[in-house]
């Protein structure tokens, strides 16, 4: 093990906690691992806090975590950018590729006088997404964030997007077609895990975070329409802390379904896989909002559900259509329509053989075209193209 | 017997757990032979040495600050524009709020990421 200060050729920067139980952490792990494999190690700079150590060193890999508790998001982002700059500085002479995930990480990476190339991975655009998470942000404020995004994207050497819809949104911000690379999300297809302890006999599963665009409210309303099905429960594997569930829980109580909903919070990834594998149906009720339609998304839960061999009932959005086919891997239903969602679930429950066949086809589809190995090979190709001739 | 408490792993974290041979002189944690660096520093403290301290009250901070100031910042991140364009009014919308503000309910166990799939 090397003991002196390391000088890295690659860095991956994310304004996101790592590791965590969110889909984004799975994505970061895969992408950063590919980058560090290509460049003989590297620095991962991410958000920490809690029990996570501020620094970690594993052979030629380093993890540095920003853990300042700054409640205001913009203040925090500003402090993070400064922290990233300080952590890139020791590597400024040796750095060849800096892979970033958001404008706050990108700003210090695209600074003048750099020798490295910048790969900007766009999973979402804060200028669109923040209008949902921060409804009081003025359009003028979001406009400033859009300009910041545009500035960082313009100065990046390559933009990686997980879906065509996001690619389109990035193109709309003025990034030339030739600089945009599609690297879809993936999943690993493994053995069927053991049934989780305490799993109900028959259950629908929802996996993911609880922001309003996830459509948990639509799912709860749909579930209320399935009250006549004896013993059917809904398991929500939330990737966020319990207190975030308050609004959805209140709604579940109002709808009279709270007693049939089981909650699990911030489960490790392998446990989520077990809950998926034994569910009757996995539901991805994404709403038809600007975040999902204009910005686009690449819901990992859809891919991971298919990898687990479970039929999926999801909202019929362009970003979801890129991943699964209606009637083949599950059902696509109009977004924000609880009755339609309930009906699709009910039909799958009534035709278990057809549902199982959909699950099998979904799994085969992932094996054929959406594994992490494939995504990583595509990312490696982007790095190769960029660093060629350097 | 003391066990090495160094955090290991990348996506799934754990503790090393090997028999400790020394205590890190900086943070005092027990470290095993494989994780003890020069002067028995643990990997966390050894990695931290490679980066300037972020704490202005730390004695090492002035040195790094002064060095960077004189070296000039034309080659590195020097955001004199972007963040200063966010005034109090802009920032005010991003204060953590109560349960009613989506995403505004912020605590130490929360993620700061804004993009989630």
TrEMBL record, chain A:
What superkingdom heads the lineage? Bacteria
Task: Tell me yes or no: is 4Fe-4S among this UniProt entry's keywords.
Answer: no
Q: Where is the Glycosyltransferase subfamily 4-like N-terminal domain?
A: 23-189
Q: Which GO terms describe its molecular function?
A: glycosyltransferase activity
Gene3D superfamilies (alphabetical): Glycogen Phosphorylase B
Keywords, comma-separated and alphabetical: Glycosyltransferase, Transferase
Pfam families noted in UniProt: Glyco_trans_1_4, Glyco_transf_4
Q: Which InterPro entries match?
A: Glyco_trans_4-like_N
Q: Can the keyword rRNA processing be found in this entry's annotation? A: no
List the protein's name.
Glycosyltransferase involved in cell wall biosynthesis
- Taxonomic source organism: Actinomadura citrea
Automatic annotation (TrEMBL), chain B:
Domain of life of the organism encoding this protein: Bacteria
Identify the stretch(es) annotated as Disordered: 97-117
Acidic residues compositional bias: what residue ranges? 107-117
Its recorded name reads Endogenous inhibitor of DNA gyrase (YacG/DUF329 family)
Q: What is the lineage of its organism?
A: Bacteria, Bacillati, Actinomycetota, Actinomycetes, Streptosporangiales
